[in-house]
Amino acid sequence: MIKKLTVLILLLAATTGIAQDADYKVNLRFDRYYTSEELNDSLRQLNQAYPQLTELVKIGESYQGRDMWVLKIYNTETGDEMDKPAMWVDANIHGNEIQGGEVVLYIAWYLLENYDTNPRIREIVDRSAFYLLPSLNPDGREYWLAEANTSSTSRSGVKPIDDDGDGLKDEDGPDDLDGDGHITQMRKKVSGGNYKLDPEDPRLLVRVEPGEEGKYDLLGYEGIDNDGDGRINEDSVGGYDPNRNWGYNWMPNYVQGGAGDYPFSLPESRNVQVFFDNHPNIAGVQSFHNTGGMILRAPGAKNLGDLPPGDVRMYDKLGKTGELMLPGYRYMIIWKDLYTVYGGSIAWTASGLGIFSFSNELNYSAEWDMDREEGVDYREKLQFSDHLEFGELYKEWEAYDHPLYGEIEIGGWTKWSSRVPPVWKLRETCHRNAAFVIYHAESMPEVIIEDVAVKALGNDLYRISATIKNERPIPTRSDQAAKHNLFRKDFVRLSGESLSIVTAGTVIDKYRNRLKAQEHDLETLWVPGLTGYEMKEFQWIVKGSGTATIEYDGIKVKNAIESIELR
Ligand SMILES: [Ca+2]
Ligand SMILES: [Ca+2]
Ligand SMILES: [Ca+2]
Ligand SMILES: [Ca+2]
Ligand SMILES: [Zn+2]
Q1: Cβ–Cβ < 8 Å for 223, 403
Q2: Where are the beta strands (DSSP E) in 245-320?
Q3: Ligand 1 centre from 226 Cα, in Å?
Q4: Confidence check: pLDDT of 352 > 70
Q5: Which of 64, 265, 290, 493 could form a disulfide with 97 if both were Cys (CB 3.0 to 4.6 A apart)?
Q6: Cis link prior to 299 (omega < 30° from 0)?
């Protein structure tokens, strides 16, 4: 087996080429994190370096007026963009989940830099379109990068919301009391507390056993009572969840916290929705989040049922392959294996629009996080910080005189301590997830027409037959779309200058030549869709002469056309 693999690798190396540093037109780095403006700048650089293959489209602005740019990648020389199946990729809808932005940027960069040298990259760029939005929440990204935060604050965007119902908005968030650029924790030494120092590593606190006396209390995130209402940090910047604001199975705030006032009430989700409206050719979706290493699919909630079994089989195939490509990631269903999400973005695209959609929860890719069953081993994590991150992930405890709590200590895990990988691990995250997106895109449907035949029946009558085949695993129309009529059926159209159609239909038994004939509008034979690798045979009896042209037309697949002479 190993020998075989070596031969295969050598063969690949001989016949294909992956671009190396010296060949790059745009030298983007993937060992750093980009600000929202730097992400846009990078898209602009790629657009300028590859004008033939890219188009930069402004889809709108964020709440704070940041431009939201989508980089389109497609080749006009191989057909009309809107006639090709398109792969939509976004990331960073949660403000603190930034590394998806670099993954999306990497996809763009990798496709463009390898277009000339790798035949598979060239093929996928030539036959489809990519629509890439590195940050769906550029305000939240900027807020997380520029301000003191924890690894989990803030998921939100920055539109002010009154979280505690006191009539004031965003009046009391966490405060960086020690001015180190992180929101860490506060602890106080007290007898009878709930925590004690970890005997193995006294920098850590552990809960006391029942009956054991504690020495410390944890007092929550660093901060003071800014508005003097007696509570600390009760209303921070934003306070909603941009990934609960989408137009499928949306629920109000009192059912689904953070949902917003109505579906697409946020400018960022609204901009994306309008783009989808104008691009019905979108046939695949990936939306990157963190954390934990998951390949998630819809549905987000149980109440409206699972996706149809045929679609689930397709998701299973893609998801299981994803597990091979992304070590440590597990293929999961959102509501069942994670938690219930009403109004989530990929539930809207998958269940609402019938598009095959995944959301990868990017892995931290650190040793202590790989085995989730065991939970995080904080001692091991601290060793990682000590030896490999030179202490950057953990702030040593220091005394602080707090206006409410008196003498306390501030310290603990920093903003960079989880969810976002260290920069030296970022590139592998980018590459593996980009490869999964490209694999998903390669699976999008492609239809060919073959075995076109004509038989003269006399009296200017001809029988025309053709086989139409989907050469890829993803159907031209998902079962979800078919079941709920989410977009129109495909059709086969026969046309010719000087012919009229007598009968037209789908062959349902090719051995006995049985036809299911259509009764009206014989030019347009409606087809519910072609599943993965499915072949369907069509037959027409026509009267006339000249050329007959057969065209297969589907919303999410490039049209196929063949012609034949009647003789
Ligand atoms: Ca408030
Ligand atoms: Ca701090
Ligand atoms: Ca307060
Ligand atoms: Ca505060
Ligand atoms: Zn998220």
Answers
A1: no
A2: 282-290, 294-297
A3: 11
A4: yes
A5: 290
A6: yes
Phi, then psi, of 357 in degrees rounded to 5: -135, 140
Quickly tell me which residue has 């410390």 as its tokens.
216
Which of 118-127, 134-143, 514-523, 538-547 shows the lowest per-residue confidence on average (mean pLDDT)? Answer: 514-523
Among 3-17, 57-71, 437-451, the range scoring the smallest mean pLDDT is 3-17
**Arithmetic mean of pLDDT, 437-461:** 98
Taking the CA of 395 as reference, the closest ligand is 2
pLDDT, average across residues 380-396: 94
User: Bridge-partner residues for 433, per DSSP?
Assistant: none
Residue 91 CA to ligand 5 centre (angstroms):
9
Q: Which long-range contacts (CB under 8 A, 24 or more apart) does 507-513 make?
A: 507/465, 507/536, 507/537, 507/538, 507/539, 510/537
CB neighbour list of residue 380: distance below 8 Å, 6 or more residues apart: 367, 368
Query: Please, which residues have CB less than 5 A from ligand 5, an ion?
Result: 94, 97, 289
- In the predicted model, is pLDDT for residue 200 greater than 50? yes
Instruction: Give the Cα separation of 510 and 507 in Å (integer).
Output: 6
pLDDT of residue 17: 83
Paired tokens of 413: 């895990």
User: For 174-195, what is the mean pLDDT?
Assistant: 97
> SS3 for 411-466, per residue?
EEECHHHCCCCCHHHHHHHHHHHHHHHHHHHHCCCCEEEEEEEEEEEECCEEEEEE
Q: Is the CA virtual torsion 409, 415, 418, 423 positive or negative?
A: negative
In this structure, which amino acid lies at residue 559?
N
